[in-house]
Structure formats: structure tokens, C-alpha cells
Amino acid sequence: MKVIDYGRPVDGGISGRSVLTLAATAFQGVARLVANVAIGRLGDPALLGMTQSAIASGNIGSLLFASSASAAASRNIAFERAKQERERAHAVAVHLSRRSVAASVVIGLLAASVQYFVTGDLVFAIAVLVLCVTSSAYALSRGLHLGAGEIGRLATWEIGIATAALIGTAALLLGGVRSIWVVAPIAVGHVAMAAFAWPRRSPKQLSRVDKRSIRTFVLLGTIGTLSSAGFIQLAIIWSNGLNGPAYAGQMTAALSMVGPATMVAGAISQVLFPTLAAHHGSQDTSGLAGRVDRSTAYVSVVMVAMLCAIMPLAQPLFDVIWGAEFGAAVVIFYALAAGMVLNAAAGPAVSSITSRSNSGMAFSAISSALGFAVGVSSWIVIGAFDPELAVPIGYLIGVSVIAAVPYVRAWRELKMRWWSRTARTMLGILAATGTSIALDAAGAPLYLRIATAVVLTAAWVFGNPAQVRQIIARLRPRTGRRPR
Q: pTM for the full model?
């Protein structure tokens, strides 16, 4: 496979090949869901909780450097491509790749040491080290692809490694493996993708000023990313410590059900990031505001529609997919799903702030740290009264703060007219959640749940006709039809 081309022209927005990334990310989320279901059904909740605790530890390790390095690659490579500075874009990729390798190994060793000290399980600690390094490599390779505009290549890789990981995990389970190594195929896929994405030596070197700017960006991004994306990873670990591996398995089951939608929302922000950075670089304020406004509308409409369609059916879906052992996961799912929609709706606003400058990254880091602190405090306070509800409710409270602060800032700075849209989004979330809880309390039959899901989804779609028409119009060219 050829190396990444850093000389592509900059594309714009969520359209064209960007749809491939979103589709590939959705596929990857579904594959992870199926793999988790296989682990939970063929194994048990404790095995699922153990494997996901290891994956969460590895993901948190990647958040300490690689995820922010990925965002830095996406932003700075796009900047240089916009100026037709191909060699400088390549130099950015080389610089961040080398730093990411060194950082991931050090962080992985530290994480493994902590796990061994806490659990005394050497095999589990080694698994955490491997997952930390491979997750970091995968995160950085995504940023290289997105920054370079290699959307089709990224989509191909993500579908390929997701398929291979699912087949490999299933084969190990069917072969009788009931240890942490059932997740080994995930690590192998990440290594393969990173190996083919890694940049070759660059003849151009970055200046000290450039390196210092990138270093500051990564530091600020790490604080913000660890507080926001790391929040849900810590929730799994906290669940394991508060209520044991079986409850962590319940938490993982709920998280797996919202996983595909969460990954798509994250992919939308990642696809938008280089485009918004280009708007900032050209000082195109009107173009930036229009892009953020449309993206926020599309994300909100799609995510709430999914909520209305799935939430009323959550109880029977969990019974069929996960089985009776995972009955407690439904309540957790409601809190996680509501938080996911709030976070997704704020995604374009966050990207508009963080793609601007290091000061924007600093603001995002502070707001994320604030929400993280509020969420953890809620775990401690609520945990004293109701340990089982502490983590999901605390997560919902914390993520609401993380989403609200940048959303309000973008609303004010870009002079958006978001009162009506915000009210409709909140009403849609409350209607879907409240109705679903009422159906569970009443022991509603399946036909009533299906009817409720249809009514809620239809009401939401017909309540947002303009946005629905625009979304359909943008998707039509992918099938060769011209929008009217």
C-alpha cells in the first residue's frame, strides 16, 4: 500500500468522501458491539468487565498524549496543505509520530506498573501495556489520515481491522479462551494500520517555534481530552472498583450499545476539525459560523432521532442481545445515551473553539476539567447513597457541563440563533428518556414499545423538516442523484 500523500488539496465539511469515514466508524462501532456481546454471552459479565477495564486503561493511556497528538496532526497538516507546503506537512507528521512512539511506551510502562501494583496480576498488566501502545499508534494514525485528507484510505483500514478483530475475537472465544487475551486481535489490527500509516523520513525540519507551538497544543489538548473522552473510560474503571467486575460488565454492555453512535459523533468532529482550522486560518468568520451552524443542526437531528427510535425498545433489545444477566444495564444505558447526545450536539462548537488557536485549546481544557471534576464529585456523593446509580448519573451530570460550556461560548461568539434548536433538542431527549422509563415501569408489551418508538421518531422528524431535507439532499449525491 502506498504511503500517505501530504500534498492533497483541502476538502471541506461533512460531505463527499467524509461520509465514508462516518460509515466506516459506524461499522467499527457495530463490530465492537458484536464483539462485546460475544464476550459477554460466551463468557460472562466478569470476563466482559475485565477485558473492557484493560481496554479502558489502554485508551486512557492513549489520551495522555496520542489523542492530542492526533488532533495536532490533523490541524497542522491541514494548515500546511492549505498553504501548499507539502514538505512542512510531512515534517509535522514525522515529528508527531516520533514523539508519540516514545510517549506511548513510557506511559504504557507506567500504566502496567500501576495495574500490577494494584491487582498483582502480571498478565493483566502486560495486556494494559500492549493496549496502551497499540491504541496510541492507532489514534495517531487516524490524525495523520484526516490531516492529509486520506479519507478513503482511512475508511478502508477501519473496516478491515474491525472485521479482522471481530473474527479473531470470535475464534478465540470459540476456541475456549476465557482470559484477557481475547482482545489480542484488536491490538494486532491497530499495529497493522499504524505500520502502513507511519511517515517516512522527512528532508525538512520544523523550527523550535513550530515545535513549541505543537507541544503547547498537545499539552492543552491532553488535559481537555483526558477530562472529556477519558471520563467515560474512568467510569468503567470506577464501576469496577465501586461495585465489582460484574457491575463493570453491566456498564460495558450499556456503553457498547451507545458505542456506534458515540464513535460517529466523534468522527464528525474529527472530520470537521481540519476544515474549521482552514476557516480560522483564512479568517473566514461567516464561513466558519455557517459550517458550525449546519453541522450542529445535522448532528442534533440525527442523534435525537436515533434516541427516539432506540430508547423505547431498550429493554427488549438488551434481553435479546445480552440476556437476562444484563438487566441492570438498561438504566445505565439511558443515562449514557442522553449524555452521548448532549456531547455530540456540542461537538461542532467544541471543534470551532479548539481549531482556532492554543487559547481555544486552553478554554476547552478548562471546561472539560470542570465537567470532569463535577462528574467525579457526583460519583462520590451519590455513591454514598446509591452505588449502582452513582456512576451513570454522575457521568450524565459531568458530561452535561463538558458539553454546555463550549456550546454556550460558540453560541455567543458566532452570534447563533440557537434558542429554538436547543429547546427542541432538550425536549426530544427528555421525551425519549422519560417515555422509556415509564414503559419499563409499566411493564409495557413489545407492540406498545414499537408504536411508541415510531410515534416519537415521526414527531421528531416532522418537527425538524428543514434539517431533514438538507440532510437528505447532502446524502443524495452519494447515490448518483442530484438534490433538488
A: 0.70
